[in-house]
Queue: 3 jobs
Job 1
Amino acid sequence: MPKDSPKRGNSSGEIREQYSNWRSGLLSEALKKQPEKDAEVTTGSGLPLDEVYSPLDVEEAGLDYLKDINFPGQYPFTRGIEPLMHRFKPWPFRVWSGFGLPEESNERFKFLIKEGAEVIYVVCDLPSQLGFDSDDPLAEGEVGKVGVSFNTLRDWEILFNGIPLNSLHEVCAVFHANCTMGLALFLALAEKQGVPIDKCGVALSNNILLEYTCRGAYIFPIQESMRLSTDLIEWCAKYLPTWHAARMNSLVYREGGCNSIQEVAFMIADAIAYIEWTLRRGLDIDQFGRQFTANMGLDCDVFEGVAKIRAARRVWARVMKERFHAKNPETMKMRLYGAVQGMELTKEQPLNNLMRMTLQVLSGLLGGAQYITCAAHDEGIKIPSKEAARLSLRTQQVVAYESGAASVVDPLGGSWYLETLTKQIEEGVWEYLEKIDKIGGAIAAIETGFYNNEMVAASLKQEVRSRKRVKVGVNKYRAEKEEPIGLHRENPRVRELQIERLRQVRRERDNRAVSKALRAVRQAAKGDKNMVPSVLEAVKELATIGEIYSVLREVFGEYQGV
Amino acid sequence: MKKTKVLLAKVGLDGHMHGLKLIATGLRDAGIEVVYLGLRKSPEQIVQAAIQEDVDGIGLSSLCGAHMIHFPRVIELLEQKGVESIKVFGGGIIPPEDIKKLKKMGVIEIFVPGDSLPEIVDFVKKKVKPRS
């Protein structure tokens, strides 16, 4: 902080007068000469923008520094959840990886760790996300395709062979519909590796609602899915306090066409639903609230990206404190994973994506993300190649160490534009939360089609806007002929090899113990006990994902959605 | 004049539904009748529904790399059932070499990220006509 406080020379009356002179004089002259003066200028997600912002906007927004902004680490955490943020140490570099056979992904993980990755986020293939074994007829053509294939704990051991869980800063995996098995796999793996589970950072994604609204990888009806998700939150609160139990997500809404107000609102409405379900188990908000995290997409529109993150942090803190009466400030802090948005990247001139990734990572740093995940520039075409994966890590490292943006906490704070936009997003979010409350909360908003209708309407607008906006290499500066880049080569034998291994596991394991464990899973599902212990037992006995989830499908039924 | 009728479905396990819903809306707004079959449909279910609903075209979506298994299977089943006059188009994250192969097999067009909604709607209006 400077030793002398800055002089506040002008009264707002003086500024207002000057502003109106400027508008009618200089600005209107300039507009007259501007042939495109009627073109709509908006943020990346479509919020309208003024030509310039001044102290008047901040005054009109009614912003109170201590109440609304405050210092980093202090409620409502607008400027960040920690006092120092990344001043002395960059965020743990997080990579999103997984494809083919467990051993192929294991090799990639080791390569990325060698190159500086500290958090591995395992991407699983669709059969496993949906609870099917590799030999299920429905898995044809999908095994190891968009993520790594696994059927049993044995695959998970191969995946982390030579990577003790406690050697990573944190480990995550895409587990939503199959989240119970996901938690069990990590517990069983830690035991196998002989590492103390309370020394491992594990982050569960465990956010089934987004499957109904955006990704479509659901299995069970919503109520049963919510029960499974809540089981995990409860289990983590009681026995795994260092884990992250559920990750709320705004990125999926943004990619579904939402603007930054809607994406934040829907993410927080989802969080409210999970919190209410968990409170009904008799837990106190301060027992589990800090184990929630947020995943937000980062933006090429750096200012909007930073504003939406700051707005989300403020609303999150206020919801925790005012709505749920949290007392512990730790509960009120939104722990943020920033992730490069695939929708900003293009398949045309894929190397251009490196620049887009740089902007997005910078917006994550300036916004105060705890973790950042960078996509790869060739993702629009294929699973990232080794070189592309390394470059995505390097993008983070260059921004972290060379941009200087980490030296000062919330360096954009106080910008009239940024503070006004933050406030504008925050107010929009509160309006949406009120609407969703009136419908009856997030689950009712899904069931009545509210989310869906909002997203279809928003994507239609976005589609029109995206045709007007310049996308470099796509609708301007197009290449006559695209230069080929080196792409990832798929192993064509993944399914065959996984089926072979699956059969071997079925031969070698104690099949009577498996049947017994699966009966226990069925019993637990029929009752109202927490599902974690029975699924954990089945996982340890090498029951396959298909076996466990077909038992649950029989008990719970399947979601008949759109 | 008879309205063109198109069936849209996601084939395989991929659940990314936004794009297809958007296309459904765009086609409806352009006066085309749309049967939206939804997620995780097998080629068999799709072809059966297409025959039952007597559609003129089928739009398949797969963003997760299973297109080379499922799209040709739809074409094959249509031929088997003697309804190859139903035109098949598709979209997804589909590499150029696969697009070539699929077109050779009879898929009339493949759309990829970056193609605009009006382009897709125009294409369907021009190339998919009532069959009888």
Job 2
Amino acid sequence: MTILEMNHVSKAFGGAKALSDIHFTVEEGEIHALLGENGAGKSTLMNILTGVLPADQGTIRFLGKDYPSPTITQMEEAGIAFVHQELNVINDLSVSDNIFLCREIRNRLGLINQKEQLRRTKQLFEDLGVEMDPSAMVSELKTSEKQLLEICRALYADAKLLILDEPTTSLSNSEIDHLFGILRKLRDQGKSFIFISHKMPEIFAISDRYTVLRNGEFVTSGNIKDITPHAVTSHMVGAQYVDAEVYQPRKLGEPIMVLDHYSGEGFSDISLEVQRGEIVAFTGLAGCGASELMQTMFGALPATGGRFSVNGKALQGSIVHFMKNSVAMLPSNRKENSVVPDMSILENFYLAEHELSRGKRPFIRMKDELRRYESQKESLHIKAGDPSDSISSLSGGNQQKVFLARWLNIGADLLLFDNPTQGVDVGAKEEIYKLILQFASEGKTVIINTLEIPEIQKVADRCVVFYEGKIVKIFEHREVNEHDVMLYSTNAIETAGEEMRS
Amino acid sequence: MSGKENGFGKRLGRIWSQYSYIFVLLIIMIGYAYTIHINGNDFKFSHIAAILGSQNTCIVGTIALGMAFVIITGQIDLSVGSSLVLCTGVSIVVFNMTDSIALMILAGLAAGALCGLINGLLVGLGKMPPFVVTLGTMLIYRSLTLSVVRKIDPVISGSSSSQFAMISKKEHYKFLRMVFGTGKLKFGSFSIPYIFFVFLLVAILLIIVSKKTKYGKSVYAVGSNEKSARLAGINVTWVKISVFVLTGVLVGIASLLQACKIGNVTPASSGQSYEMYAIASVVLAGVSMAGGKGNMLGVIFGALSYTTINFIIVSIPGLSVDIQDTFQGLVLIIVILIQTAGPAIRESLQRARKRRQSAA
């Protein structure tokens, strides 16, 4: 049975068409993947469905009822719930308080009936197969549990259709498996899901059907089992995209960076030597210490022992000191750690360089800044309007390129990229891989920390696998494959012993 | 037709939101001219000159310039009114003891910088919330000044037990008070008080700092996203301390204006609520209280608007001084309401129109 039908939906912002003539249907009891690059119109479509934005044209029919001009409350009451990428749970309340937020159970005095709330939460969790303490504080939960909590809250409100916007970005593989297990169970109970994600393996693991949007237009839809990841990618990016092998072996230079029994928050006793022009990938499960190591190698976290030296010089102290010795870090979570939201593209670009040059030249010379920006813009193929436009006017991929430019602008030789393709669409990802390879061939050294193994296969000369703050394995480029990396990341190799190794 | 209207409306909306402080001042000025008119007088340039030279413009305005920097970094400084009293006290005492203009200026600025540095270190290194720290120093700075004025020899304080006053027998008294403090620069039939030029000069300097220097940009970056700023190499702690010190120095400058224009300071009552007046000027200037946004040029207009509101209230006959703050508060709230609610109201009207169209 079709529970949701959206027909001929169009929407324009000012003069720009965001959606034109979209068709989108969801069946009862299915997980429906909504696919498309950033800017393809997925968010706009979902915002129209949930009443956040009004559509210019088109019809919405949900559970046999038409909604000509839906409001947020109407759609919530009808049974549509939006689980956002940024979680909307309240950290300072307990699990059950979050579930009953704004619909508290009261006793005769009008006070909250904690006992009853806890009992019902427990019942709900039992029905869903969720193992969580109803009285725990949300601040103590893991990210995956918060995600689950939000889904449970929607289900308690009797949602029939849940929209999951990139629910797995901050989850480790085992957490993803757990989440997917519960989603499958709920699907079998007749709940429907719209699943928005960029990760192909997940899409193929969990979805029943798919719909692809491109540039605000409907491209195709069908059953997941009838299509391949490669074909989906082609639909998403259009005809021009080919998944070509970009990796090329290069001649490496002298050792440039040495970690010697290096320790800090979340990792310990790391020893590693990296050569000039090399691309090394760090990987492991979320919380394996690779990201912390990277931040410590940039002075953003304190080291507690050992040595980190670049070009033979041991580095410690403030971030600026690391920058002066040509180390740069592109942090993970762009919106939180890179974007200065109230500033223009140009200002976001030049901030870091100013910290190195302001002692000698305290005044900003627009001409010089623009010249530097334009040259980076050209070599990184940044698609941007006026340099004085707001940074938020750019797509995720182009924002990320501005931040790459920020660090190239200080003339850094050792580039640390923490999850550089997070929230970046397929086309821009491919460009970023090409740029990383280009930097390396120009003699820069690149370390990327990533959870995506296909990414490692595309660019890395070596792959360092972390488990609980220690290096467990180093793979050469040709040895990298999803299966083996996963074995070491999850430490399955230790648990299974000799049997697995043979 | 409607498309054209939309385009114009949009452009006007953008200009309004970017330069709202100019419109605010214009509207308030017109209101002032009108009240003078119904009082039976002509609105003349001397009325404007009075606004320019008022202590609300020059003294509070100079402090507001620093306050704007502090607010742009996402912090607040409640101690400025009290440190103004302290700095004025110090500069008057130094003048009375030495009769030296240079030493007086130096003492005022140094006292201000020290007050600011204490705030900055407690906030920056002590990692305490600026609201609480400056609330504490607000009490401390005033009470210290108060306890000193009671004990100090009148030969040094220049007055009775409740005031610091510049001693009129000193050689440079006439220059500081009569020539500079209350004197005016004449342009033909116009004349503008000298102290306004001090305020203007400081304002222009700070506009340049905020727009044209690398330091200025780092101040905005810290207020806009502290984490990103830090990971771009900006020393966030240092920036936070520096804006307090800058504010302190500006309070020092304001204290010299206070000494020269008024000639004395009463620790128990002078500079009362100046922190609030400074914050009000900053808000009227369109600076975001959340940090990261705001134009220093606006602070000049913000300070002038605030003074003009005062003048309007004073010029309405039959209105007692006691009710003054009520009107100031109301105007402030109305202006902010227009600034923040304006775009939201416009948006919801547009939505309602769209909905009607799609329903029809």
Job 3
Amino acid sequence: MVRQKVVIKNKSGLHLRPATIFSKIAAGCASDIKLIKGDKTVNPKSILFLMSAGVKCGDEIELVCSGETAHDDMQTLIDAINSGLGEDDE
Amino acid sequence: MKKMSIIKVNTVASRGMAMGQAMIFDKPQLTASRKIISPDKVEGELARYRQAVDTAVAQVSSLSNQSDVFAAYADLIQDYALTELVENNIKNELQNCELAVENAIRTFSDMLAAMDDEYMRERAVDIRDIGYRLLSILQGRDVHAPVSCAGESDKPLIIIADDLSPSDTIKMDKSKIAGFVTQRGGITGHVAIIARSMGIPAFVGVSGIMDLVADDSSVILDSVNGEIILNPDEVMREEFLGRKLRWEEKQKLLLHYGKKPAFTIDGKPVKVLANAGCVEDVKCAAEYGADGIGLFRTEFLYMNSKHFPTEEEQFAVYKEAAVSFNKEITIRTLDIGGDKALPYFPFEPEENPFLGWRAIRISLSMQSVFKTHLRAILRAGFFGKLRIMYPMITGYEELVQANEILEECKAELAAEGKPFDRDIQVGIMIETPAAVILAHDFAHHVNFFSIGTNDLTQYILAVDRGNRNVAGLYNTFHPAVLKSIHHIIKAGHSAGIEVGMCGEFAADFEATRLLVGMGLDEFSVAAASVPEIKQRIRNISVAEANASAAELRDCYTQKCVDKIIADS
């Protein structure tokens, strides 16, 4: 199991469009993934659950991956977040 | 002819002036035939669901070239959690496909509707829109049947609806629509977005409007006055058409003059910024073409609250300001005092509130409140170009103390690992005689000056303009005030920092030329005045304006000042 904290940087946070992109990437990972924000834990493979976490720009979230490909999957997810999830951060 | 009535509206989601014929958009409610199935039907229902999903995805994909919200719909329809819940409802709860979809959609739309974020609440509309589409497909209805336009008349239509989803508006003939009024919805909702993109007015959250308007009745939407006028009489129609025309002329002018930067005749760029008292003002400033926000007042956060606003509450507001206007925004730290009471913090009554416990003096003596304030600004600075400005500075020690607290906040945020703007610029308002006299010294210790002419005038001239007997003595054109302004600008420039002005004087047409002559770098005025001040600057020659400012040196009478102003 791999855990990592990361700060969401794209400006609208996990709004519909970025949540869609992120959940597609998460769905492509073989690991079981959890996204933890505050006292909420959601499965980021669903756009709806992801949006329900209400993640805003500047929020810190924690990702937990478990499974054989946990390390690689974590890197994929972190890279996606750091790339701004389709939003230019000017 | 029905009686004319006027409805005041609170939420203008898109500005504009329109007159047209009401069209009530009332779509049929779809309800699932509630049915519990026998276990041998499960496979069949699952197959029907997958078929409906495929059809829905194909439908929205074909619409995605018209509006990119439909691209996201394709993903939402196939969402992992939605699919899982529908399939679970069919397999384990033995619900038929329609009921399973209806229940799952309700679960997720309720989940989003309960969130405390307006944007996310609006997404509940999208979820219901998808549910409506799936149910239509399952019941064999055509969700894309075009909306019949009442009477097929050529008059522009004002659409009246409970709420409108992307699937509703996509099938409307946009060329006929002049405005929208909805009972639900907010300023981040679909109606708001589509109306703004079409450049037509939209009022949202107008509860009960569907009961007040009849199909085909005449409706006026006036965003300037924030009114809906039902069944306007002939006089009102005439008057409105005049107002509409003037508004449109003004919009054209604004667009023409406002957006472009202002250069003097001889090519010197001068920045014209806007003052703002809330986030809406910031958005408005962007529309008027302001070069930034020269004064963002933070008082509203404190006055409209029941408690000292928390760091998160303030952060959300400053961040929204920062991201909604990608230009420099100068945030003035709390400027309250004995003349403005806070509902949750009574100030002791003072004999002389303007000489009393106010502005930076309060901040320095209530450090936890000040730190909350600064931390929120620092964090929001990460998302845009924010600057901090301290009001009412009289002595160097106040600046040092405020900056020490600012550094403490930075150290705390760094230790907590929260992102913030480490290099945020810090400036001061020059609005007290003490700060004017020490301006050369202050200039070496701050990043910018901003001249607050309202307080500066009253302090230099010792005049309370709220006092009728002396209000006539309040005069920013007084030679002592003008010389103070000139002194401040020169002091700033000698240390290489920019000097702005955010008081009412910055918007005074008669002063513009003299101020440009003195070398003022930034004018910060009400958003609506930005285009006009820019236009004024474009007709000024710096060389001539400098000469006027130089004349001021030997000038000590009002008559002499008046002559300089009259000649300019």
